[in-house]
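Quick sanity check, PCI domain-containing protein:
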Amino acid sequence: MARERTCISYPDLQTQLQLPESEVEPFLLDAMSDGAITGCLDAQCETLTVYSCGVRNVRPDQVQIAKAKVDNYLDRLSKTIATNTARLTPQEPSMGVKRRLEG
């Protein structure tokens, strides 16, 4: 899309990317923070102005393979985040530890 025009509306992106309306801007922010897109978001006008973007051509028969790899990566990332969150969440001390602390 960015090859055809540099200013793209959120509704056009939503249709092209097949995302719910609420996920368009977070998706773009992630793409920008990952360096895949350099541009400017206008939340009020709901547009993305693209300055540059990384392009990767994938043959039609490779799309499902690429999607599976991305889904697998996201699944692993989600599990890692959950594990780290659990590790960082303060735990209630066990009864033995409580007694020693109180004792």
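Posting the structure with no commentary besides this: The mean pLDDT is 82.
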